[in-house]
Amino acid sequence: MEYLISILLLCFSALFSGLTLGYFSLNLNTLERRAKHGNKEAAAVYPIRKQGNLLLTTLLLGNVAVNSVLSVYLGSLFSGVVAGIAATSLIFIFGEILPQATFSRHALWFGSRFAPLMRLIMFIMLPVTFPIAFILNKLLGEEMPSFYSKSELLHIVTELEESELSDVDEDEGRIVHGALKFSHTTVREIMTPKEDVVMYEKNQRINESFINHISDSSFSRYPIYSGNPDNIVGILYSKELLTEEPDTAIYQTLEAFDENFLKIKPEEKLDVVLGKMLKQKKHLGVVLSKAQNFLGVVTLEDIIEEIIQFEIEDESDD
């Protein structure tokens, strides 16, 4: 009978010790996210883990009480020195090391399985633990939430992508990386420079030669300048040329020429430019210097390519 009581006390010591490390190795924000996404184990653990100081007080009080009783009880079974060695050895190996090593590796599984028992113990100990937890809450405040920086998120995504246990594949990992990085990229870094931009003077007449040149270029939008190529005055939409009268100057067209174009600064971030494009329903932005000189163009396709980290090619691309 004496040994059965000792084993029972040792089991409770292991339980309190293992649950202490197990519960507090679980991130509160991660538990909340998993619970909201239907994880039953996280949903069972989160309400308990959320009461941080009350849970900690309950577990530590239970662990100290059981270990004290176990030491006294073993002292009644053995002589002084032997009792001390026996109590220390049993508590250290079976009450601390083994349960903590086991619970820490499977914290969520053990935490959810022992959640009903933990709620019962917390209720029983409430008269003692609640005042202590209340004081801790007032002195220390609520548990600080933990969030990941962008660099940490990028590292996590890389680890998930490389892990055989994760369902994040290479394409998803690449897109997440691009989405997290593109807001730090400036227009200057991805724009098509002025030297590589096909543009036309506003007085250019719409004739067969011009239409053939447009077809060979195979772009949908072209910057239009007046006199000096640095003086951009509008955008030409090539698809609208089909309905325009022949031998008409570009600036005289009814639909093809648009003076209301999106002006972009070279130092603007891509997330800001993307917001402007979506709001103004523009697929092309004209990049201008502080002196309003033409520097190049940036397109919605350029930004999407930066996000997905992949070159988008259509039928006309080489």
Question: Characteristics of this structure?
Answer:
rod-shaped; four-stranded mixed beta sheet; CBS-domain; 3 domains; 14 helices; 318 residues; single chain; alpha/beta
Give the overall shape.
Answer: rod-shaped
Rg, Cα atoms, Å: 34 Å
Please give the domain count: 3
* Residue share in β-strands: 5-15%
What spatial order of strands do you see in the largest sheet?
A: 1-8-7-6
Give the integer mean of the pLDDT values. 86
Assembly level:
single chain
Q: What is the percent of helical residues?
A: 55-70%
Can you write the helix and strand succession as a string?
Answer: HHHHHHHHHHHEEHEEEEHEEH
Can you tell me the residue ranges where pLDDT is under 50 for at least 5 consecutive residues?
none
Number of helices: 14
How would a textbook summarize the main sheet? 4 strands, mixed
Structure summary:
With 318 residues, the chain is α/β, with parallel strands linked by helices. It contains 14 helices and eight strands. The strands form two sheets. The chain has a four-stranded mixed beta sheet with strand order 1-8-7-6. Strands 2-3-4-5 form a four-stranded mixed beta sheet, with no helix packed on it.
What does the model show?
The radius of gyration is 34 Å and the shape is rod-shaped. 24% of the residues are buried. The protein is of the alpha/beta class and 318 residues long. The protein contains 14 helices and eight strands. The protein folds into three domains: 2-140, no CATH class; 150-183, no CATH class; 185-308, CBS-domain (Roll), CATH 3.10.580. The protein is 58% helix and 11% strand. Helix 1 (2-24) packs parallel to helix 5 (80-105) and helix 4 (52-77) packs antiparallel against helix 5. The strands form two sheets. Strands 1-8-7-6 form a four-stranded mixed sheet. A four-stranded mixed sheet has the order 2-3-4-5, with no helix packed on it.
